[in-house]
Amino acid sequence: MANPDLNQKLVLKGSYGIERASELALDFSDALSKTGDIDIDISQVDEFDIPAIQVLYAAASSAKERKVHLNFTGEVKNNMCLKLISSGLSNPNCSSAKEFISSLPHFPGVAK
Amino acid sequence: MNDKFRETFREEAEELLSQLEDIFLELESNPTDKEVINAAFRAIHTIKGSAGMFGYEKAGKFTHDLEGLLDACRSGKHAVDKKVIDLSLRARDKIRELLAEENNSEPFDEEALGLMAEFKAAIEGKKPNEKKAEEDKKPKEAEEDKKVVEEEKHTKASPKVNTEKQSTHDSKNEPMNIYRINFIPEKDIFKNGTKLENIFNELSEIGTMSVVADLSKVPILDNLKPEDCYSSWIIFLSTNKGIDAIKDVFIFVELSSKINIEILEQPDENSNKKLGEILIERGLVNADDLSEALQSQRRLGEVLVERNVVSASDLDSALVEQAHFKKTQDKFTEHSATIRVGSDKLDQLVDLVGELVTMQARLSKTAIDYKDSVIESIAEQFDRLVSQLRDNAMSMRMLAIGSTFNKFRRVVRDLSNDLGKEVELVTIGAETELDKTVIERLNDPLVHIIRNSLDHGIEKPEDRINLGKPEKGTVTLCAEHSGANVIISVSDDGRGLDLEAVKRKAIENGLIDANAQISEQDAYMMIFKPGFSTASKITSVSGRGVGMDVVKKEIDSLGGSVSVSSTPNKGMSIILRIPLTLAIIEGLLVRIGNERFILPLSVVESCIEAEDVEIKNGTSVIHYREDLLPSIDLRSFFKVPGDVPENKQIVVVSIQDMKCGVLVDEVIGDFQTVIKPLGRMYRDAVGISGATILGDGEVALIIDCARIASSISLHENEWKEKAC
Fold first, then answer.
1. Which residues in chain A have Cβ-Cβ distances shorter than 8 Å to B209?
2. Which value, to the nearest 10 degrees, does the dihedral of the CA atoms of residues B514, B515, B516, B519 take?
3. pTM of the model
């Protein structure tokens, strides 16, 4: 069994609008280019715009291809989820990162 | 035209005008936000269409001209600047006046004509006086404006008016439709700054919406261009607004995106759809596939996806469609069960329930007196029913305080402009509910407090910068429930109260002795004395010392209380504690001599035997849960004659974070109290807030615990010193 202490850590902070979508994609590319699973702490994220959500999907698809496990961690900010509800990308009951990821439709690597 | 319909229209227009004020103020903060401009446009368009329909041709014509200005802003021909907002707000006020006019055949007054000229001038990019000069050259044109009203009055059935009616997609009389919207944005949509979230939010405002996002086309990271859009959506929208309203939402992306809007069907009681029906309707499965899958005795969706008959995302959207139909059906039932009732009828209902509560008390008393078990049982059942009826009737009169809060946005905006200050109004707890009567009476006190904050509290921008504060001041209106009360606070981040100046003025006015030692809170409360002001100059807004005393009087008459907190250069807060309702409360019936009194149950903490009363240096104190509390003997306070019983009882009450004991002869029990006002003659009676009728027809006075506690609090330091 993999040792979680050896996992790479990625801490996402602030608002991820269109202007930070490339930066987010780069962070994931860097992390995926190294070995080991990746822990992504999203507890400090204020906002994910749709481009950022697309990056999460792309990263999850790449991780699945490379058999890397993306482990989203932390309590998520209520507002972050609320802003995505109208776009069909979240639900009102998300409090943890796992719940948030599960609420994303057909998120790669997440079994419903 | 039926007056009822006109009345309903006026009520709806009033709601729209209130929303419009908020929209314009929002637009002032976000002048480039297309969604907000669209929202303003739609509200105006609705008023215009309906005004014509209900015979308010003048308002219709006036609104039509304002719509022209907003259309110019919407199409980018005119910027949304301060002038447009000022003009729009003034126009909004004028529309309200026009709708209130009884005689619709009078020509437009000067103000309306002036505003209409300003709309036209703004659209044409001219100054109003330039426009006026031109109009002076063409007196006929101005005359025509006046005539339009007359003409439209006589051409009610003209094609033009009919067209307007048909295009009024916001009419509430239109049937509810369910739309399926396929939205595939172009790849570059994010690059021009479009936030798709705003489109979804706007759609959700025009109806009930369910959304299925499809991100299956998002590639792996190596092939991803992060600024491209790979997502698409299927949206189900139930609304009684027409297809044009939906198209309006997509107006800025329609050329670059694929948008397909289909009407599904009108929901009714039988709107429930089966998953198989939806999949067949959409052509995703055929009847053979379906019947084969149904035979497997497993979940249909799972089987179809497993057999690759439908994709997971197609199944998702079909399931969402099914759920949406169910949701719409529930809404449909809910809408059918909602009716609009005049507030006077509600007031009448609460009055009648009050009478019923009094009668019920009488029945209970009679049942006990007659010692008849059958009557007693009926009285008990009747009691339960009346309690439920009372709670229901009271809940109908509860309104969210947000509507009152929103009115102050305009007050703050206009006043800060007049004073040359920049002030933002922040509201918290707008959803907090209060009895309608209480809310109505809160308006004036809050206006006075806010005006005072803006005039005396918030500093000028340059002074704020020098003090290291943000240029823009903040006034925060906050409401929250606290037991049977609501606490409303008005806080600012201004200069705060100058305690020394308050004390100096109080001495000058002879309110306190020059050598008097008063607490900080008592000193702050001086600002509520009539004629009291520390302002060095009188302005048109405040400074005469009138206003804050009105606040105190009004809050007192509501049975509430006021307190103040302040920190120099950080700001001040005025905190109002208001009872939730003024109609019926739960009370504790007590006896003193032959008199009976009611203590509001919401302030009662406990009842104890009066064994532990001590008199220390002339002050009465009680021991209560290892604490020493001041106490007051109601017999002495109200000078009730008669023999003092050997064993008295103490009711411990808790008010404004202060506890005290109230000595009574006997605690009788709880009592549903219908509050009756005391009338003008007794309005100055200290310690009494109202009266109620008991089961035997006698009157019991309701004790104003806050007033009694404050009379103890004034001497708090004194008794503490003596007691210790």
1. 86
2. 100
3. 0.50
